[in-house]
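step=encode ok
step=design start
structure_in=
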């Protein structure tokens, strides 16, 4: 069978299966991709050929950072392909590209912003040849699937090594993410936050406590959250590299977003490598790097709340300019960026404001809990916990998350709990000193929604992945939100 016929069959099968599945109100986000690959195993490379593509990977922030970049590109009139549904494994990415190709496999769009699972990076990027790869951060996540965080780091490194021409955008504040630049030929640009955030005592840094080069315990000039911040190794000199796109001051944080000051270097691209000074320690601004001779600083508004969205915003700017676009476009668009599904997404159930915040690991959950604790107003909370394959079967991470931060505070008025592992979550809240009378296990989504309708205070829902999909569908049907796969 000729390559042209295989391509046509693959595209036809993909589009037909997606149309059929969506008529049945199913997402059609992965099965069409599998169908396409049965006819042509190389279909993804064909249908992405010649496109300018930005890929975003990492533990937390993939979806929102991708959404920020896509929002900026679309806002300037560019026609952009994006896997907004969150299907970020090889079949899902294949389905998105193939569904948006002509019958002969030619891309209909020139630009793409793709969220990619960390473990799937090595499968996806050699096929689509991205211009830029963003790595947001690395934390423990789904231990039964990924293993420890060092395994995830190596999976990402394997993918990067397959595309040496891609520019890397790395989180300078994450010692794990930044280490990806040490042994690859790619050009690198760094982003980060130059200032401390919150209480600087007793910070939990268990995900990256020791130097990745020599094993010595890191010292920190400051922390932002978890193991992120101004790390440095007192023995070998491996340390935070001065980023070319950085937040220098956080001026305001509220439930509607943040206002920050950012510093921009004249050129975000830096060469990775291993340049060292004579005593073997890395130079202050990183291997093979130099401090830009011209820098600017300005105020930037990010239209989504919480510290992790500040990180997502600075990552989006770094990626945007690394791809060769005017950073003023993305800076302007960040002020009115919308939440991705389940990520700080808002609903209104009658008169009750509801915000849904996806949580899936200790670091992300702690940031969501810090956000609630810092609001300074009464609220009800919903904690949803499943242990299905897409969530990870190991839910022991809830014991590493600081639920005490909200359970011991004055503003949590009632907590609803549901999901396959609701009993485990109830137990965790009790150990966090929540009053037993304030914890209520709910049978299903319908029962929960009826109870939320009666709330006299705002409601915040903290679900993990599959529970988020289910509850979002139920809330969306009532409040008029479109289905998740429609973006």
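sequence_out=
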């Amino acid at each position: 069978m000729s390559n042209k016929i295989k391509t046509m069959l693959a595209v036809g099968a993909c589009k037909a299966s997606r149309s059929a599945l969506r008529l049945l109100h199913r997402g059609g986000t992965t099965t069409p991709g599998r169908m396409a690959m049965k006819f042509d195993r190389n279909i993804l490379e064909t249908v992405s050929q010649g496109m300018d593509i930005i890929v975003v990977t990492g533990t937390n922030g993939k979806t929102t950072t991708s959404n920020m970049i896509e929002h900026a590109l679309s806002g300037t009139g560019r026609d952009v392909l994006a896997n907004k549904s969150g299907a970020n494994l090889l079949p899902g990415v294949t389905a998105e590209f193939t569904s948006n190709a002509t019958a002969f496999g030619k891309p209909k769009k020139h630009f793409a912003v793709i969220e990619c699972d960390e473990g799937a990076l090595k499968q996806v990027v050699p096929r689509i040849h991205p211009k830029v790869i963003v790595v947001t951060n690395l934390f423990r996540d789904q231990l039964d699937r990924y293993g420890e965080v060092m395994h995830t780091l190596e999976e990402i490194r394997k993918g990067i090594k397959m595309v040496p021409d891609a520019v890397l955008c790395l989180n300078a504040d994450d010692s794990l993410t930044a280490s990806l630049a040490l042994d690859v030929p790619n050009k690198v640009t760094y982003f980060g936050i130059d200032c401390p955030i919150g209480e600087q005592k007793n910070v939990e840094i268990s995900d990256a406590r020791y130097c990745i080069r020599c094993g010595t315990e890191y010292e920190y000039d400051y922390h932002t959250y978890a193991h992120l911040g101004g790390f440095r190794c007192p023995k070998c000199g491996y340390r935070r590299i001065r980023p070319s796109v950085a937040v220098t001051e956080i001026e305001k944080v509220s439930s509607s977003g943040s206002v920050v000051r950012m510093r921009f270097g004249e050129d975000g691209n830096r060469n990775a490598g291993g340049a060292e000074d004579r005593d073997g320690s890395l130079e202050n601004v990183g291997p093979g790097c130099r401090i830009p001779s011209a820098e600017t600083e300005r105020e930037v508004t990010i239209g989504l709340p919480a510290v992790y969205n500040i990180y997502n915003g600075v990552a989006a700017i770094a990626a945007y300019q690394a791809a060769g676009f005017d950073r003023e476009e993305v800076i302007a668009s960040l002020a009115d960026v919308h939440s991705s599904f389940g990520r700080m997404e808002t609903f209104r159930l009658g008169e009750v404001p509801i915000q849904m915040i996806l949580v899936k690991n200790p670091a992300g959950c702690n940031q969501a809990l810090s956000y609630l604790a810092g609001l300074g107003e009464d609220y009800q909370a919903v904690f949803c916990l499943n242990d299905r394959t897409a969530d990870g079967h190991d839910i022991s991470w809830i014991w590493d998350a600081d639920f005490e931060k909200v359970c011991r505070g004055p503003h949590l008025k009632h907590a609803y709990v549901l999901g396959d592992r609701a009993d485990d979550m109830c137990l965790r809240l009790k150990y966090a000193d929540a009053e037993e009378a304030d914890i209520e296990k709910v049978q299903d989504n319908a029962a929960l929604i009826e109870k939320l309708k009666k709330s006299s205070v705002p409601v915040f829902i903290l679900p993990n992945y599959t529970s988020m999909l289910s509850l979002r569908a139920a809330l969306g049907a009532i409040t008029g939100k479109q289905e998740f796969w429609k973006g």
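step=design ok
step=annotate ok -> The chain has 16 helices and 18 strands.
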